[in-house]
Prior knowledge:
- This protein has a domain at 57-153: Immunoglobulin-like (Sandwich), CATH 2.60.40.
- Helix content is 19%, strand content 33%.
- It contains one helix and eight strands; from the N terminus they run H-E-E-E-E-E-E-E-E.
- The longest helix has 33 residues, at 2-34.
- It is flat.
Amino acid sequence: MKHILFSLLVFVSFSLTAQDTKSTVKQTKETTAVAPAVKKTATVPVTGEVERSNAKMTFESTIVDYGTIENGSEPLRVVKFTNTGTDPLVITNARGSCGCTVPTWDKNPIAPGQSSTLEIRYDTKRTGAINKTVTITTNEGPEKHVLQVIGTVLPPKENLSVPAAEPSLIKGN
């Protein structure tokens, strides 16, 4: 008797859940049919490209040569450039190839025909050859300017506070 009651209970519970599923399907269909059409709006794709202008950055030289310098020497070098285009030139970014080469620049637009400078600081306490780059992004378009930073930093001089010991002919007892 218990098995029959249990079977009947299971059958009734399945039939109730089956009816609920059918009713939710009907409601979903009805609400979908009644829902108003959604207007499609035009979206502008974001590509990350810089808008082109008629600005033109022209350098006196794209090589920043430190030459052979003493360790700890003056780290600053200045690069001069001119806007030879017909639109204002805006430098949007300048980045050294490593943390030892740091560029700084004027954030204001450079008018056509005007000149400006880019300052480059190199960590002159790093001994050895210098072979770095500075990449400059402007409003000219996606092309970037690359400056080559070269030179050699000599090792630091030894500071002798006490003279070096010399061999002595006098022998102590």
